[in-house]
């Protein structure tokens, strides 16, 4: 794919994302804070608006970020729940930074067991997590119509957004990066009409999430001999966790595996996803050549497009029929009522 065509495709996708996806919730917003870097709002930076939300907050607070490109590193602590972050569109409002992992500290992210995950902080597990432009540690978080970007240009881990809080939802959002773009680290999450661009493990973590009608775009160089990986999932404390992709499309440049197993309990489902020719025939990969994949659950059901041909798939891909996959694609897989309690 040529660079001009790739750029036009990105623009076309972002224009489509400007059509809003309705939230599944109807909760009332108690307070609105406006961020305008030009000085026309309550605050000039997103972090200062987040800091204005009181610890222990239990009422929905909207942080409306006016059109613009906000260069800052933002963290929402675990004490600041019930935040709705809203932009003026993912093609016109973004939060960006360019931090990356120090390769001298970590060559990547090493798979870990559930026991290890429960007894280590994110930073102790891997310094990669410190690279995130936007970090959400709180439960009950919603974002819509905004983009998160890690603008680092090299081939090192560089996260655009990390979420390890529970009950997070994203509507019409965009996530831009190259390696480790979106860290869906832990908790239950819902992504609808979102756009995720990257090349290596660009959606990774231990999350239990549904991605509905999302566009996953590879920016792997066409000249690269090594394919990338769209996903890198693992299971830790929650043995029912999985990444579920329902509808949407995989497109872009270069070549991609659908995913590689971050640990021996990894689970990823692609259901009725259109897969362009960027997907390699094998479809899936191990983390290393000696990995035991007998308990890995990677599956595709009802997918279409040139990349969906399963004749060349790895023999350990799990075969599911439509009935078996329904428990994953049903919204109740992640939702016990929390989505309807969001704004």
UniProtKB/TrEMBL annotation:
Its EC number is 3.1.1.11. GO terms for biological process: cell wall modification; pectin catabolic process. Its main location: secreted. Residues 33-335 form the Pectinesterase catalytic domain. It catalyses: [(1->4)-alpha-D-galacturonosyl methyl ester](n) + n H2O = [(1->4)-alpha-D-galacturonosyl](n) + n methanol + n H(+). Coiled coil: none annotated. It is found in: Secreted, Cell wall. Gene3D superfamilies: Single-stranded right-handed beta-helix, Pectin lyase-like. The active site is at residue 201. GO terms for molecular function: pectinesterase activity. Keywords: Aspartyl esterase, Cell wall, Cell wall biogenesis/degradation, Hydrolase, Secreted, Signal. Pfam families: Pectinesterase (PF01095). Pathway: Glycan metabolism; pectin degradation; 2-dehydro-3-deoxy-D-gluconate from pectin: step 1/5. Residues 1-25 form the signal peptide. Belongs to the pectinesterase family. Acts in the modification of cell walls via demethylesterification of cell wall pectin. This is Pectinesterase.
């Amino acid at each position: 794919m040529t660079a001009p065509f790739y750029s036009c495709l990105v623009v076309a996708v972002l224009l489509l994302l400007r059509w809003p996806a309705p939230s599944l919730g109807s909760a009332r917003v108690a307070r609105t804070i406006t961020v305008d870097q030009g000085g026309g709002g309550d605050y000039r930076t997103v972090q200062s608006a987040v800091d204005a939300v009181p610890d222990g907050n239990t009422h929905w607070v909207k942080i409306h970020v006016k059109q613009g490109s906000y260069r800052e590193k933002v963290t929402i602590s675990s004490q600041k729940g019930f935040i709705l972050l809203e932009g003026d569109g993912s093609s016109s409002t973004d939060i960006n930074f360019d931090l990356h992992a120090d390769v001298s500290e970590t060559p990547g992210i090493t798979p870990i067991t559930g026991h290890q995950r429960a007894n280590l902080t994110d930073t102790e597990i891997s310094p990669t997590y410190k690279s995130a432009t936007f970090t959400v540690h709180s439960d009950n978080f919603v974002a819509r119509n905004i983009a998160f970007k890690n603008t680092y240009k090299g081939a090192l881990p560089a996260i655009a957004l990390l979420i390890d809080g529970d009950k997070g939802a994203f509507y019409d959002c965009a996530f831009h990066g190259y390696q480790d773009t979106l860290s869906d680290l832990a908790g239950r999450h819902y992504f609808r009409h979102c756009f995720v661009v990257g090349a290596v493990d660009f959606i990774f973590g231990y999350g239990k999430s549904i991605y509905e009608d999302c566009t996953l775009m590879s920016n792997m160089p066409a000249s690269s001999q090594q394919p990338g990986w769209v996903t890198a999932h693992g299971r830790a404390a929650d043995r029912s966790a999985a990444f579920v992709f329902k509808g949407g499309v995989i497109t872009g440049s270069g070549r991609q595996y659908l995913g590689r197993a971050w640990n021996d309990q990894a689970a990823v489902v692609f259901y009725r996803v259109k897969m362009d020719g960027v997907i390699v025939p094998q479809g899936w990969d191990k983390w290393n050549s000696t990995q035991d994949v007998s308990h890995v659950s990677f599956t595709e059901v009802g997918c279409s497009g040139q990349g969906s041909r399963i004749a060349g798939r790895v023999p350990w891909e799990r075969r599911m029929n439509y009935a078996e996959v329904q428990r994953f694609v049903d919204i109740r897989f992640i939702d016990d009522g929390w989505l309807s309690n969001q704004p």
